[in-house]
Design a protein that fits this description.
This protein is α/β, with parallel strands linked by helices. The protein contains eleven helices and eight strands.
C-alpha cells in the first residue's frame, strides 16, 4: 500500500517578502505547490493537502526565549522601541518586516501540523516545505531564520517519548538544530553541507560530535565546493544508512534544502534535482513509520520547485513525467523536471571533491561509529 502522505501548504505561507533584494523568496513555495498541482499529485488516494496553523507562544517557548518572542512581536508591528540589532535583525541576512511574527509562527506551525499528523497516525510521511529554518537560535535570528521549526517539531516528537533522527542535506550546516540537541542521545543529528571553511555559518566540522550523553550523536560531513551527485551520494551512503540502522529512530526528520543545486546563486555545491531526489530515495528506504520532511534553503526558485516536486513524489510513491505539464510550463517557462545528467565539471575538480569527501567520511567513521558499535573495515 502506498505511503500515506500529507503536504502542508496554503498561499498564506508564500505571501510575505523579506525585502526586495533578499535571496529568500517565499514565492518559491507557491511555485512548488503549483507544479505539484499541475502534475495532479494531490489527486492520489494516499495524499492529502492540508493547511498550516500558527504555532502557539508556548510551542515557540520550547526553544526560544520570552524576550526574543516579544522582540519579534514588536518588530512585526514596527515598534520603534525594539532594539533590533540586539536580536540580530537589521539590513542583510535578517531584515525585520511587517508581519514577521505571524509569517514565522505560521511556518513553524506548519511543521508542527505535519508532526501532529505523524503522531496521530493520520499520515506516515508529511512534508512541510515552508519549514527547515535550521539556523535560528534561542535568542536571536540567524541565517534568514527567525524561529527554528525543526527544533520545535523534534521537541514535539520527543514529548511523545520518541527517539528522533534528524538528517539535514541543506548546503549550509544545520547549526541551530545541532546546538539544541548537542548533549542528548535521544536525537541523532546528521548534517551534510558545504564545508564551513567556505560557507556560512562557518561550523559543522567533523570534530563537532556532541557532548556528555550526546557525544557521538552529532554528525557532520563537510564537503568541498562543486561536489556533485556521484560523490555526494557515495559519502551519504557511507555514513547515513549504518547510523540510522543502528540508532533505530521512532521518527525521522529530514531537512531537504536544495541550495546544494549547481545553479544556486549563493552556494557552491553541484547537485542536480534528480541527484537530490536520489538522496531522498535513500532516506525513504531508511525511514521508519513516521517521516517528517522539511524544506530549507534554495535560491534558484524553479530548481526549488522541481526538486521538492521530485522529493514529494518519492515520499508519496508517485512518478512524474519528465516534461513539465501545462499550465505550469507556459506560465513559468520551464520545460523539464530533471536537469542534464552530466554537468561540465573538470575531472580535476571531481577528484578534489572525492578526496575531500573521503577525508570527511573517514574522520566521521573514526570519531562517531564506535559510539554506536559500528565496526568499519
Amino acid at each position: 500500500m502506498p505511503r500515506r502522505s500529507i503536504f502542508v501548504y496554503d498561499d498564506t505561507l508564500s505571501e510575505h517578502v523579506l525585502s526586495t533584494e533578499h535571496p529568500m523568496k517565499p514565492v518559491r513555495l507557491k511555485y512548488t505547490n503549483d507544479l505539484l498541482q499541475a502534475y495532479g499529485a494531490f489527486d492520489a488516494g494516499n495524499v492529502d493537502l492540508v493547511a498550516p496553523r500558527q504555532a502557539t507562544e508556548d510551542e515557540l517557548l520550547t526553544f526560544h526565549t520570552a524576550d526574543y518572542l516579544e522582540a519579534v512581536r514588536g518588530l512585526s508591528r514596527n515598534d520603534p522601541r525594539v532594539n533590533a540589532s540586539k536580536f540580530n535583525f537589521g539590513p542583510g541576512d535578517n531584515p525585520a518586516y511587517e508581519g514577521i511574527y505571524e509569517a514565522s509562527s505560521s511556518s513553524t506551525g506548519a511543521s508542527l501540523r505535519a508532526a501532529e499528523a505523524l503522531i496521530s497516525g493520520e499520515a506516515d510521511a508529511a512534508f512541510s516545505i515552508s519549514g527547515g529554518l535550521h539556523h535560528a537560535m534561542p535568542s536571536y535570528a540567524y541565517g534568514f531564520c527567525v524561529f527554528n521549526d525543526p527544533v520545535i517539531a523534534i521537541k514535539r516528537l520527543l514529548a511523545e517519548g520518541m527517539k528522533v533522527a534528524y538528517v539535514d542535506i541543506d548546503c549550509h550546516h544545520g547549526d541551530g538544530v545541532q546546538h539544541a540537541f548537542y548533549d542528548t542521545d535521544q536525537v541523532l543529528t546528521i548534517s551534510f553541507h558545504e564545508s564551513g571553511a567556505f560557507l556560512f555559518p562557518g561550523t559543522g566540522f567533523t570534530q563537532e560530535v556532541g557532548a556528555g550523553r550526546g557525544r557521538g550523536y552529532s554528525v557532520n560531513v563537510p564537503l568541498y565546493p562543486y561536489t556533485s551527485d556521484e560523490v555526494y551520494l557515495w559519502a551519504f551512503n557511507e555514513i547515513v544508512p549504518p547510523l540510522l540502522r543502528t540508532f533505530r529512530p521512532d521518527a525521522l526528520v529530514t531537512q531537504l534544502g536544495i541550495d546544494s543545486h549547481y545553479a544556486d546563486p549563493i552556494t557552491h555545491l553541484a547537485l542536480t534535482v534528480q541527484g537530490h531526489a536520489r538522496v531522498v530515495k535513500e532516506l525513504s528506504e531508511l525511514a521508519p513509520s513516521r517521516w517528517l520532511a522539511l524544506g530549507g534553503g534554495g535560491y534558484d526558485l524553479h530548481a526549488v520547485a522541481r526538486a521538492w516536486t521530485l522529493d514529494f513524489g518519492v515520499m508519496s510513491e508517485q512518478a512524474f513525467a519528465p516534461e513539465i505539464p501545462e499550465p505550469y510550463r507556459t506560465q513559468y517557462q520551464v520545460e523539464a523536471l530533471a536537469d542534464p545528467d552530466e554537468l561540465p565539471i573538470q575531472d580535476s575538480v571531481v577528484k578534489d571533491t572525492r578526496t575531500f569527501a573521503e577525508t570527511s567520511v573517514k574522520a566521521v567513521q573514526g570519531l562517531v561509529f564506535s559510539a554506536h558499535g559500528i565496526i568499519t573495515a
